[in-house]
Amino acid sequence: MTTTQLPTAAEPRRVEVPKKPPRRQREGAAWVFLSPWVLGACVLTLLPMAVSFYLSFTDYDLFNSPNWVGLRNYTQMFTEDPRYWRSVGATLMYVVIAVPLQLALALVVALALKNMKHGRAFYRSAFYAPSLLGASMSIALVWRAIFNDGGTVDNLFGTGGWVNKPGWALFAVALLTVWQFGAPMVIFLAGLQQIPGELYEAAEVDGASRWRQFLSITVPMLSPVIFFNLVLQTIQAFQVFTPAFAVSAGKGGPADSTLFYTLYLYDRGFVASHMGYASAMAWVLLIAIGAITAVLFRTSRSWVFYASEGDR
To answer: What are the alphabetically sorted keywords of the record (predicted)?
Structure first.
């Protein structure tokens, strides 16, 4: 007599979960991928900064060994160099003029593009193009020709060349910066597109005018973007070099009216071969930009509004 064996239920199949590699091995892989950036930061940024900090306490002329002089470069800078303070004044004047005008123009154009129904992409690219070209030496030389004696401005208005007048040369350089409003304009446009349209519809129902909508809705909702552009453009303005170098032929004239800080730093370091003095100037500029940025962040608490108080 034969017996049949009943089929048994299939046993559940075990799925082996791959083990994670050890933590040390994962960290090693991360450092391998980060190594190009870390190497570049150390060799191209941190090491030059350390050397510059050391040279700021020395008398170094690029040809002989550095000679330690302590704080002499700093004391000479603040107490014995009138051109240094003229460069500080010219730079501050430039920042005060160029940055607000550039941001105001960028915001106006962004508002116009936001309400444009046709051709927005073309005009956005056209207005952004000067931001890509304006920092080049060729554009700066063309700008100098426009504002020089016998140039376009002189022929149209008969005022003479701005670049040869101490009271007008700085304005010519500032206008070149204002003309490069494309980058902040694109950022403003992106911020404007994030403002809910329901806010404007509710304001219209309440009878608010366009100006009241701008002050009560657009500006508060756009304040984080305004703050971002303000910080970014202020830092860039303190480091302006190419326009002043091209307009004044590297001299900062006329009468030191375009002797910006970075231009005078270049003159001390690479023209006069006082690299120790130039290094001290560079560190003072770094500290000044850091202090101004900290002040902007501190004051932003009273006028920058975020989506919730927890984000502030």
So the answer is: Cell membrane, Membrane, Transmembrane, Transmembrane helix, Transport
Query: What is the separation of C-alpha 204 from the centre of its chain, rounded to a whole number of angstroms?
Result: 37
Q: Name all contacts of 199-205 with Cβ < 8 Å and 24+ positions apart.
A: none
Integer Cα distance of 312 and 178 in angstroms: 30
Partner residues linked to 68 by β-bridges: 58
Closest among 215, 219, 151 to 191, alpha carbons compared: 219
Quickly tell me which residue has 């004051």 as its tokens.
299
Instruction: Choose among 113, 117, 140: nearest CA to 127.
Output: 113
- Are 127 and 182 in contact by the 8 Å Cβ rule? The answer is yes
**Residue 85, phi-psi category: left (phi > 0), alpha (psi -120 to 50), beta (remainder):** alpha
- Calpha distance 297→170 (Å, rounded): 28
- What is the predicted pLDDT for the residue at 310? 47
C-alpha radius of gyration, the chain, whole number: 29
What is the C-alpha to C-alpha distance for residues 264 and 90, in angstroms, rounded to an integer? Answer: 11
Map out the domains of the chain with their CATH numbers.
74-311 (1.10.3720.10)
- For 251, the 3-state DSSP assignment is coil
List average pLDDT for each run of 10 residues in the chain, which is 312 residues long.
Answer: 53 58 70 86 89 92 89 92 93 94 93 83 85 78 84 77 84 89 91 87 86 88 92 92 85 86 92 92 94 93 74 46
Distances (CA, A) of 239 to 16, 176, 211, 234: 59, 14, 35, 9
Ramachandran angles phi, psi of 62, nearest 5°: 75, -10
Helices 219-238/82-114 angle, 10° precision: 150
State how far the Cα of 267 lies from the Cα of 270, in Å rounded to an integer: 6
Entry pTM? 0.83
